[in-house]
Specification:
Order of helices and strands: HEHEEEEH
Strand content: 25-35%
Shape: elongated
Largest sheet: 5 strands, antiparallel
Number of helices: 3
Helix content: 25-40%
Number of strands: 5
Mean pLDDT: 79
Structural class: alpha+beta
């Protein structure tokens, strides 16, 4: 886990951050950061259509039965490549988890711009 936090000036503020992170990570769980789909570049059928239809800002659901993972994600980046003489279409979506209908990226952007200009810090 990587955290980018401004300096904390009080014990109470540090404790609040620690309590939040403990609640957030108390139950171990996996999160996807990217997902890649591959289809035939010329005869890909429904998979091919879905690869081209979804884009940045769309929401996808990922369900994985072995670990019980079931979560919605926002697509925040995408990479397409057509290889093997145009017969292999590979799409990788960079994704962020959704919480309360919003992606973590959207929340960070809102928090950044809600802060007074002189108090904005950290990467968005």
């Amino acid at each position: 886990m990587r955290m980018n936090l401004p300096g904390v000036s009080s014990h109470a503020a540090a404790q609040a951050i620690a309590d939040f992170e403990l609640r957030r990570h108390k139950q171990p769980r996996g999160e996807a950061k990217a997902i890649t789909l591959v289809s035939h570049g010329k005869h890909g059928g429904a998979h091919h259509d879905e690869q081209l239809a979804l884009t940045i800002g769309d929401t996808i659901a990922i369900t994985e039965s072995q670990s019980g993972h079931n979560r919605k994600y926002a697509i925040v980046g995408e990479v397409h490549s057509l290889t093997v003489g145009g017969t292999r279409l590979e799409t990788t979506w960079l994704i962020l988890p959704m919480m309360n209908g919003r992606s973590t990226y959207e929340r960070r952007i809102e928090e950044f711009f809600a802060a007074p200009a002189g108090r904005r810090s950290g990467a968005v």
